[in-house]
Design goal:
The structure is a homodimer. Chain A is of the alpha+beta class. Chain A has helices at residues 2-14, 21-28, 112-121, 123-149, 152-169, 184-191, 195-207, 223-229, and strands at residues 32-37, 42-44, 53-59, 62-67, 73-79, 98-101, 105-111, 177-178, 212-214, 217-219. The longest helix of chain A is centred in the middle third of the chain and has 27 residues, at 123-149. Chain A starts with a helix and ends in a 25-residue tail after the last helix. In chain A, 48% of the residues are buried. The structure holds a DNA duplex.
Chain lengths: 254, 254
DNA sequence: CGAAAACTTGACCCAACTCAACGAACGTGG
DNA sequence: CCACGTTCGTTGAGTTGGGTCAAGTTTTCG
């Protein structure tokens, strides 16, 4: 049970780079505490200097978010099972954004000091986390591009594609759907639109046969079509970091 | 002369975390080659697997950029003296964006292997670079927010504020101006607007006394005013990582 | 079962875009 | 150092994608 949780971290880091057996053992030996958050709970607050823990998501979803003076909210990333939340703050003095639970969230907290120590002792772990950071940065760049230069239809479709691929990579979906627990307002906050316009956009995508919806579940029958509509190529997710061949989670189109 | 160049890297990393004398010496001993790029030259191309070098900017400016299928361009970051360009790709198999020279650019190329080795031998260097990565990520998050949730006036002012602060931190400006060698089209590509609208926005900011312009130089007399107009707080730049007190490059307003 | 939250839909509006023309600055070669 | 082509900046007129407001309707959940 205990092992099962930290092995999630091992598996995650393994997708980033090869780990030595000693490193894997050391990860499984990390001390941790378990914690549950309920939906709108803050896990980290912007400006907080209390960054002693690093959270690993075991189940549920979380998102990072920033607010403008006007009170507008921008979701800058969404995280799921296997993601490390506080790598982004591991060496910083204070948080520069908020992290919030999107759903009921099961977190495994690891002491910052233990993690820093682990990285020192096992460089491959440091490398894996470094790569994780790089992938996050790549996603940020893609989101800037998405929000800055694509129209509503493309933006929303792109987001759906990203989630479908990431959910599958996290072992949570089949790649052809995304049962994302986001409200339309939250989707809007992620792609820089209003909830009203997200609603119209989703309806249009459904009308055009690009997506199917039932409740909050969104699915695709024609992956190539969604990809095209969303101007999506999965390469920025760097899911093939460790694979030698070109086997990929989904056809990425690069 | 040779030392003078790599000492730029030492100084840069020192702003991220304390370095051991041995680490500093090791940095100064890194083998490198110098290279000049002229303005629209590509330094790294999206998809490239040729990521053997890591470039340090000695003089000039560079930017990262992504293109959509529609051919629209989004500039996702701008870099200046002291910035490390390829930390973003150091452990990845291929580039996920383009890096281009914004001006004539003097780069100091360090072998990826030498850098990886340095990080292994001197953990403080790894930490400093890690922090550098974290700050880049923080800037990305801020840009997503800027592009996704602010109006044109605020967006442009925010960008100008960021550059003023970063230029000063890089020893290139007085904090009250930014002589940025960007065309209005490039500014537009950075904030998700058209060049025409950037032009109108800059004129409006000038008319309202927020900025002054002569040629491409933009300056502020009233920093607090620009900050307010741009909804800017410098905290996301984490410039006070190593300072113990609250001394800051500019009044950051947090 | 009832209240609150989320989703829909319509009518109207406006910030930013497009297109287009022109002027200013810049660099390059003769 | 000047002529000239090219890039960059400026401005106007008209258009539009997405926002706002507001009133339902449906879903969710205690």
């Amino acid at each position: 049970m205990v092992q099962a949780s930290l092995s999630l971290l091992v598996n995650k880091l393994r997708t980033r780079t090869a780990l030595s057996p000693a490193a894997e053992a050391a990860i499984l030996d990390l001390p941790f505490t378990r914690r549950i958050y309920d939906s709108p709970a803050y896990i980290v607050r912007d400006g907080s200097t209390d960054l002693g823990q690093c959270g690993l998501i075991v189940s549920g979803f979380a998102f990072r978010q920033k607010l403008t003076v006007e009170g507008a909210r921008q979701i800058v990333s969404v995280h799921m099972r296997g993601d490390l939340l506080d790598l982004q703050h591991l060496f910083l003095k204070y948080a520069d954004h908020n992290i919030q639970a999107l759903t009921r969230l099961e977190i495994l907290n690891i002491e910052r000091a233990a993690l820093q120590d682990l990285i020192l002792r096992h460089p491959s772990v440091g490398t894996a986390m470094w790569i994780d950071l790089l992938v996050d940065a790549s996603i940020y760049r893609t989101w800037i591009t998405n929000v800055g230069r694509r129209d509503a239809r493309t933006r929303v479709a792109h987001l759906l594609c990203e989630f479908a691929v990431r959910l599958k990579a996290a072992g949570l979906g089949d790649g052809g759907s995304c049962s994302l627990p986001m409200t339309q307002e939250q989707i809007g906050d992620a792609v820089g639109l209003t909830s009203v316009h997200v609603n119209r956009t989703l309806k249009a995508l459904e009308r055009d046969g690009v997506i199917q919806r039932s409740k909050r579940d969104i699915s695709f029958t024609d992956w190539q079509l969604v990809r095209r509509v969303g101007d999506f190529s999965a390469s920025y997710l760097h899911l093939d970091q460790t694979s030698t061949a070109g086997e990929s989670v989904l056809q990425t189109g690069r």
